[in-house]
UniProtKB/TrEMBL annotation:
Identification of the protein by name: FAS1 domain-containing protein
Signal peptide positions (record): 1-19
Domain of life: Eukaryota
Keywords attached to this entry: Signal
Length: 369
């Protein structure tokens, strides 16, 4: 019951948290291959008036345009003209610089044959946008399903079936896909889900570190997971009321603040970006956190599943991701950031050297239920 209840605020995504075929490493290869005869992806785009704005931007990026012409099988998610009109209005209001080349690369899945059937809820698709902030890996698109409709990154809806071309296929989308921001900004974008984790990071003085460091895996508990620690423990961690204050680094600090920082440090690993696809491939992963602890993750096949992967790909729906000796599970995988993969554990991962003064409220709740 807890596994579904606490995820409801995240736009009703509990039912799709672990449901996707994984597109494996061959899709991270650079686009290449011989020229194809017939109507290419660019030919199809040019003859369809819905995509004239997208084509205009592609034509300005000659290298990217030529790569599309030469590529082998490629899947392209093409925003409509209306999608670009809406996006430009938003960009005019934003003070941030727009990197159009990166945006265009983020709409391309090189060396991939993705059909409508492949776009299951939770599917993780590597794109042509390769980032140093992800350890020189390709940024992903994540698929969501709402009322039988397909969405990418919760911001763009796939419209209709794919358009075939000689060197791939095209999906029309109703929104421009903008690459995700850093961890700090992504957590702040979902306040009903992550406001407590965001406050813990801020309170610990780690906001700049977690936003600027590259190649992170972050285990961000939901608000409900924090609440399960109990109000007395939360008061201890987030407030110094009733605690002895000591000077540390030119500022006063209490024991609860130190323990909160250790808990936050235990949420973060900078050894590798670990997506659900990596966990399935490795089966067992060990990630050392900033707190010096090691988080062990096991990918265990779910009972009753028949193996729903297609084309030889593993399917996330076939697995449970177990942390430690069953102390917790990953209840939502692959929230994307520019410098990290973010996962939602079923409970706050308290390190061994932290002892909460009012006991482990989550354990008490589990026993009562």
């Amino acid at each position: 019951m807890r596994a579904t209840t606490f995820l409801l605020p995240l736009l009703g995504l509990a039912r799709v948290a672990l449901s996707a075929p994984s597109f494996v490493s061959q899709y991270e290869l650079d686009a290449g291959g011989a020229l194809r005869s017939g109507d290419s992806i660019l030919d199809r785009l040019r003859e369809d008036k819905r995509f004239s704005c997208f084509v205009e931007h592609l034509e300005k990026e000659k290298g990217l345009r030529d790569d599309l012409e030469r590529s082998g099988q490629t899947t392209l998610f093409a925003p409509t003209n209306e999608a670009f009109r809406r996006a430009k209005k938003e960009w005019e209001l934003s003070e941030k610089d727009i990197d159009m080349k990166s945006i265009l690369q983020y709409h391309i899945a090189p060396e991939s044959k993705i059909t409508s059937d492949c776009l299951h809820a939770g599917a993780l698709i590597p794109t042509g946008l390769r980032l140093k902030t992800l350890g020189d890996r390709h940024q992903r698109l994540r698929v969501f399903k709402f009322a039988d409709r397909t969405w990418l990154n919760m911001m763009s809806q796939v419209m209709g079936s794919e358009v075939e071309a000689s060197n791939g296929r095209i999906f029309a989308v109703d929104g421009v896909l903008v690459p995700p921001s850093n961890v700090g900004e992504m957590l702040s974008a979902f306040p009903t889900m992550f406001s407590t984790s965001a406050l813990a990071i801020e309170h610990s003085g780690l906001r700049n570190d977690i936003s600027r460091k590259n190649g992170l895996t972050v285990f961000a508990p939901s608000n409900n997971a924090w609440k399960a620690l109990g109000l007395a423990n939360l008061k201890y961690l987030f407030s110094c009321m009733g605690q002895e204050m000591k000077e540390r680094s030119d500022k006063m600090e209490c024991r609860g603040s130190k323990d909160l920082r250790r808990i936050v440090e235990n949420m973060i690993s900078d050894k590798t970006v670990a997506y659900s696809t990596d966990m399935m491939h490795e089966q067992k992963m060990s990630l050392k956190t900033w707190a010096g602890e090691t988080i062990e993750i096991q990918s265990k096949e779910r009972k009753g599943r028949r193996g729903s992967g297609s084309g030889g790909h593993q399917d996330v729906r076939d697995y449970n991701f177990v942390i430690g000796n069953g102390d917790a599970t990953i209840q939502f995988t692959d929230l994307l950031a520019s410098n990290a993969a973010i996962h939602i554990p079923s409970r706050v991962l308290v390190p061994e050297n932290v002892r909460l003064p009012h006991g482990d409220r989550m354990m008490e709740m589990e026993m009562e239920m």
